Amino acid sequence: MPASDANIEVSITAGQLAEIVAGRLVGNPDVELNTVAGIDEGAAGALTFIRSDAFSGNWATSACSAALVTQGIEIPDHNADARALIYVQDADQALIRVLRAIDPANTLPPVGIDKRASVDPSADIHPDARIGPGCVIGANTTVGKASALIANVYIGAGCTVGSNTILHPNVSIADRIAVGSRCVIFANTVIGADGFGIIPATKDQHPIKIPQIGTVVIGDHVEIGACSTVDRAKLGATTLGNHVKLDDHVHVGHNCILHDDVVVCGCTALGGTVTIGKGTLVGGSVTIRDQVTIGSYAKIAGGAMIMDDVPDEQTYAGMPGMPARVALANHGAMRNLAKFMRTTERTLKKLTAEK
């Protein structure tokens, strides 16, 4: 199912696609599909997906020709002669398979070192690596097999980059940093800037910077979004485990430890020495105070401010962060606070007048 042009068009029938995703076809197997689109955005020839009952009613008015549907969802007003539904165990998972098949991926520089790059003679660059124009690679740095530095990437001295890792334009990796294999780091991200270690000013002295002599260690299959920062440790290592996913504009402070499978959404800031357990999901615009520990498989709602430790498998929300049920109850109470205060004031005035 290869992409045919820059518009990511394909050519496949609904019947053929049902076989690829091991789905149950309800409808016309000869429906031609040439692209993927949202259920309310697609036109004839588009494949869409229906993951929940909330979207099932949209199918009747959708112009899409076929849909991947999670098993058990009832779809009203389906014209089986003209369109096709493909029932699968999980529509999201099936869609991922489709998108992977048609993903044109990023345009990478050719294999080898571009003549406009600057590579220290002591650097060890695998023959199958791709070093694009404007890249700078420092002394004693290693870049592994099939990794690609697209353009204007800076890697300092004494670094290691594993195999099949892609560094997008203007990524900056400071000295003595380790990046694993099959990672993707998007544009303008900085890995290894100094952690913010400062002794505050007193009446007798200016603020004093604490030297940050540690490193950053990034595991395999890690993805870091654009314009994010992962700071160098004061001592030891700031660590991102395997399969960690950071969105755009995420800040990871010095000496943080993110265990495997952690996902952090955009505009979130982690103070120094934060630990996040395996499989935890952190929502967008979350602030986590320094030295806080968040357990494994926890969930932190967007906009929360976490000031204290969070146990395993708990959901926290609010400012300051607290168990989500408590936060929602408090929020509900706050919405009625003005009305409650007015009622209370009237009652007090009445009681006072009766005296």
**Class by SSE composition:** alpha/beta
Bin the strand percentage.
Answer: 25-35%
End-to-end Cα distance, whole Å, is 84 Å
Spans of at least 5 consecutive residues with low confidence: 1-6
Can you count the beta strands?
Answer: 40
Largest sheet: 12 strands, mixed
CATH topology of the domain at 12-102: Udp-n-acetylmuramoylalanyl-d-glutamate--2,6- Diaminopimelate Ligase, Chain: A, domain 1
Helicity range of the residues? 10-25%
Describe the protein in words.
- There is one protein chain.
- The protein is 15% helix and 27% strand.
- It contains five helices and 40 strands.
- The strands form six sheets. A twelve-stranded mixed sheet has the order 8-11-14-17-20-25-28-31-34-37-39-40, covered by helices on one side. A ten-stranded parallel sheet has the order 9-12-15-18-21-26-29-32-35-38, with no helix packed on it.
- Strand 5 (46-50), helix 2 (53-56) and strand 6 (66-70) form a beta-alpha-beta unit.
SSE blueprint:
Elements: E1 12-13, H1 14-20, E2 24-27, E3 32-33, E4 35-36, E5 46-50, H2 53-56, E6 66-70, E7 84-88, H3 91-102, E8 112-113, E9 118-119, E10 124-125, E11 130-131, E12 136-137, E13 142-143, E14 148-149, E15 154-155, E16 160-161, E17 166-167, E18 172-173, E19 178-179, E20 184-185, E21 190-191, E22 198-199, E23 208-209, E24 215-218, E25 223-224, E26 229-230, E27 237-240, E28 245-246, E29 251-252, E30 257-258, E31 263-264, E32 269-270, E33 275-276, E34 281-282, E35 287-288, E36 293-294, E37 299-300, E38 305-306, E39 315-317, E40 322-323, H4 324-335, H5 337-354
Parallel strand pairs: 4-5, 5-6, 6-7, 8-11, 9-12, 10-13, 11-14, 12-15, 13-16, 14-17, 15-18, 16-19, 17-20, 18-21, 19-24, 20-25, 21-26, 24-27, 25-28, 26-29, 27-30, 28-31, 29-32, 30-33, 31-34, 32-35, 33-36, 34-37, 35-38, 37-39
Antiparallel strand pairs: 1-3, 2-7, 22-23, 39-40
